[in-house]
Write a structure and sequence with these properties.
Elements lengths: L5 E3 L14 H4 L7 E4 L15 H6 L10 H12 L5 E7 L16 E9 L2 E6 L2 E6 L4 E4 L8 E7 L4 E6 L6 E4 L1 H10 L14 H7 L6 H5 L10 H11 L12 H25 L29 E4 L5 E4 L6
Antiparallel strand pairs: 1-2, 3-4, 3-8, 4-5, 5-6, 6-10, 7-9, 8-9, 11-12
Helix pairs in contact: 3-8, 7-8
C-alpha cells in the first residue's frame, strides 16, 4: 500500500491498481479503472478529521470486530501484493471440510491477482478462481492462528503461508471459472462502497421489497447491498432515524436516500481509517477499532438509551428506540 491504490470499477468490483497483474488483460471485466483514493488523500476522505492511529486503537465500542466490505478490500489489496508468486499447496482445515472443484487447480500455480465485491473475495490462481465468502468473523493472516479455527492455508513458494480462519462458523469456498464470478456479482446488489443517496434508489428498493421483511433483514441480504455488516447497519439506521424492525415496505424513499448516504459515508470512513492503520502491515490485522456513534454502546452522547437486539438472521444491532421509528 505504498502508493495510490484504492480503486473501484463501475461494476463495484474492486481491484488494486497493478500494471503487473496478468488477469487485468485476461479478464478486463474484472479489472477496475477509476482510482478514488490515494495514500495522500485518504486522511481527508469524507471530511475525516486528523487523528493519530493510536487513538483509533484505543477508541471503540468494545463490541467484537466484524468484517465488512472495507475490511475485505484491505485483505484483497494485501493478497494482491503476493501476485506473481506461485501457490505451492492448498490445505483445508477443520472450518472448511471441502472446496468444490479443488482438483481443477494444478499446483504449483501462479497467483495472478485478487479482487472482491462486498464480502465475496476471490484469488485468480492461473485462470482458476478460488472464491471465499468472507463472513463477519473471518480473519486472513500470515501468522498461523489456532488450528481449531483454520479453514484454508495457502503455501507460497517463497515460504509464506496465508491462513483463512473463523472462530464461529464454517467458511464456504470453491473453485470456479471467471464467468461464474461475473454471474455471482450480477446476482448481488451494489457494493456498499458504491451506493449513494444521490443516485436513484429504485433498484435497491425493489430488491429489498421482493420479500416482506424488516429493513434490518434486507440490509443483511447481499442481493440488496453487498458488504454491509451489523456495525455499518447500526450506524446508518441511526443516522436515517429508521428502526431496524420497521417493515421494509414502509421505509419511504427519502429515508432510503438518507440510509444509503449514511452507509456509504460510514463504509468509506472505515476504509480510510483501515488504510492508514494497516500501511505498515503485510496483512491487515484489523487490530484497530472504529469509533462508533451507536454500535456496541449503551447510550448516545446525549444520554439517549441504546439497546442491542438480534434479528432472525443472527445479526446483533444496536439502536435507539427513542430516536428511530
Amino acid at each position: 500500500w505504498d502508493s495510490a491504490i484504492v480503486a473501484f470499477a463501475p461494476s463495484s468490483v474492486w481491484r488494486p491498481r497493478s500494471a503487473s497483474a496478468p488477469s487485468c488483460q485476461t479478464y478486463p471485466e474484472l479489472a477496475s479503472t477509476h482510482v478514488v483514493a490515494t495514500t495522500s488523500s485518504v486522511g481527508t476522505i469524507l471530511g475525516q478529521q486528523n487523528r493519530t492511529m493510536a487513538s483509533y486503537r484505543s477508541t471503540g465500542a468494545g463490541e467484537p470486530r466484524v468484517v465488512e466490505a472495507p475490511d475485505v478490500i484491505l485483505y484483497a489489496g494485501a493478497l494482491e501484493r503476493l501476485s506473481g508468486l506461485a501457490v505451492r499447496a492448498i490445505s483445508l482445515g477443520p472450518k472448511c471440510p471441502s472446496v468444490l472443484n479443488i482438483d481443477a487447480v494444478i499446483l504449483p500455480s501462479t497467483l495472478r491477482s485478487a479482487g472482491c465485491h462486498g464480502r465475496l473475495l476471490w484469488l485468480d490462481i492461473d485462470e482458476r478462481i478460488l472464491i471465499v465468502n468472507v463472513g463477519q468473523h473471518v480473519r486472513i493472516t500470515l501468522a498461523q492462528p489456532d488450528v481449531r479455527y483454520v479453514a484454508l492455508r495457502l503455501d507460497m513458494v517463497d515460504g509464506k503461508s496465508v491462513y483463512v480462519s473463523d472462530r464461529r462458523r464454517f467458511v464456504t469456498s470453491r473453485i470456479v471459472d471467471p464467468s461464474e464470478v461475473r454471474r455471482m456479482i450480477a446476482v448481488m446488489g451494489p457494493s456498499v462502497m458504491d451506493v449513494d443517496g444521490d443516485r436513484d434508489p429504485t433498484d435497491i428498493i425493489n430488491r429489498a421489497c421482493s420479500v416482506e421483511r424488516s429493513i434490518a433483514e434486507a440490509l443483511h441480504d447481499p442481493t440488496v447491498i453487498a458488504g454491509i455488516g451489523q456495525r455499518i447497519a447500526s450506524e446508518a439506521l441511526l443516522a436515517a432515524g429508521v428502526s431496524p424492525w420497521r417493515p421494509v415496505s414502509q421505509v419511504h424513499r427519502s429515508e432510503w436516500r438518507a440510509l444509503l448516504t449514511a452507509a456509504h459515508v460510514e463504509a468509506h470512513r472505515a476504509l480510510s481509517i483501515g488504510l492508514m492503520a494497516s500501511t505498515h502491515e503485510a496483512m491487515p490485522t484489523l487490530a484497530w477499532q472504529l469509533p462508533t456513534v451507536s454500535y456496541g454502546r449503551t447510550h448516545l452522547a446525549d444520554g439517549t438509551r441504546l439497546i442491542r437486539e438480534q434479528c432472525v438472521s443472527g445479526w446483533s444491532l444496536t439502536w435507539a428506540p427513542g430516536v428511530q421509528r
